[in-house]
Structure prediction request, 258 residues.
Amino acid sequence: MQEFINTIIHGDCIEEMKKISDNSVDLIFADPPYYLQLPKGKRLKRADGSEIIPVDAEWDQFESYEDYDNFTKSWIKECQRILKPTGTFWVIGMYHNIFRVGKIMQDLGFWFLNDVIWVKTDALPNLNGRRFTNNHETIIWSVKDKNSKGYTFNYEFLKKLNGGKQMKDTDWIFGLCRGQERLKDENGIKAHPTQKPLKLIQQILLTASNKGDLILDPFLGSGTTAVVAKALGRNWIGIEKEKKYVDLANDRVKNYGK
Ligand SMILES: C[S@@+](CC[C@H](N)C(=O)[O-])C[C@H]1O[C@@H](n2cnc3c(N)ncnc32)[C@H](O)[C@@H]1O
Prediction:
C-alpha cells in the first residue's frame, strides 16, 4: 500500500479501498455523490440572467434510494475497515442524502462526535420563493465504533487559531468555492461541478490530524483534499473514478503553491 501514498488512484473507490490495509488511515474525508435527483438538462437562471449549472452528472445518478443505500453501505464499510481505531471519519452531504448516510453509519456501528454545519455565506438563492434557501451542508464527524479512543482533536491549537478563545461552535461559516480558487476549463466553465472550498477541508485537517498523518479521500474530484493535505504536511491518498478529474487533480497538486 506504500505505493498509494501521496498519489491519486484512478478507479472505483469500493474496489480500490480493498487494496488498502486494515486500520491504516488516520482521517477520511468523504464528499460522495449526493443523489440530488435533478432533472437532466434543466437550466435555471439567477436574477442577473447568468446560468446556474446543476449537478446532473452521471456519477450522481442512481436507480432508486435502495440503489443509493447499497452503494453508500459498500463504500462506508470499506472506510470503516481501513480507518485506524484512533482515526476519524468525516462525511459531507445535504438534506438529499445525509440522513440516509447517517443511518447507515449508525447501523454499521460508527459513533458520532459532532454534526458540523457548513453555513454558506453566498448560497444560491431559492428562485421560486416556495421554500427557504438551502444555505448549509452537514458534515458528520465520527469514530469507527463506540469503543474507539484516542482520536485527534487539536483543541489547544484551534484555541490559538481562534485568538485564545475556545473554538467551540459546530457552525462553520465559509463562502462557496469561487473566484481564483475555482478551477475553470478552457471555456471558462467550472472544471468540476462540486469543488469544495480549501478553507473547509483545511479546518477539518487542522482539527483532527497531525503532520505526517495519512488522510484518505475516496471521492477526490478536483483534488481539494490532496492539495490541503500536501500544504499542511500530511500524507494522503485520493481515489477518483473519472479520468478527467484524476488529470485535473494531478495538475492541481503538482502546481499548488508554484
Ligand atoms: C462530490 S464530488 C467531490 C468533489 C471534491 N470534494 C472536490 O472538492 O472537488 C464526488 C466525486 O466522486 C467521484 N465518484 C463518484 N463515484 C465514485 C466512485 N464509486 N469511486 C470513486 N470516485 C467516485 C465523482 O466523479 C466526483 O468527482
